[in-house]
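user: Please review this fold.
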Amino acid sequence: MKNSKDAETPKEPELEIEAETPGEPDTQAAESAKENAGNKKELSEAEMIKLLLQSQKAEIERLQKELDAAKADAQTCKSQTDTLNQRLANTLSEYENYRRRTASEKEALSADASAKAVKALLPALDSLARAIDFAEADPASFQQGVEMTLKQMEAGFSALGVVEIEAEAGQAFDPDRHNAVAHVDDDSLGESVVAEVFQKGYAIGDKVIRHSVVKVAN
């Protein structure tokens, strides 16, 4: 028999310890770091989008304010335009009323002037009619009637402000009040002197109604 000492002593099982290989990174830590980096990147993009949206919102608000201001200006302009249009309409209406009133007054003045002229000449017309009635029966009365008619017409003209234009032989020719229809060589008269009056002229103030028709010496 073998000695117990010679019996083999049982071996203790060896623990296998994996030795870390020098220089090999921790896989879990690397994944975690990579994930954190991705999160930071995503957060940065989100912030950028947020800032962009805020900027766009601010721009929209600014444009909205400008639009509101433009609408307010447009409303003000429209109000001013409406006011001006109303004033123009009122002015045109006033002018039209003034034109009608002036035309009416002008017609009234013209009618009054005509009535005044006719009234001033009616006595002469009556005298002329009476003179004609006595023309055959009493020629002398007819002549007196005509002379009276002439005087009454002159009085009527005077009442209307009508005056006879001065024109007689020897008077200087006035082209503004005389109408020369003939010329004559006369040594006894100076140049541009009235030699003869063919028809009397009349005027009211500075307004010539009819020029005196005359013959002028050269």
The radius of gyration is 63 Å. DSSP finds two helices and six strands in the chain. The longest helix spans residues 27-133. The mean pLDDT is 82.
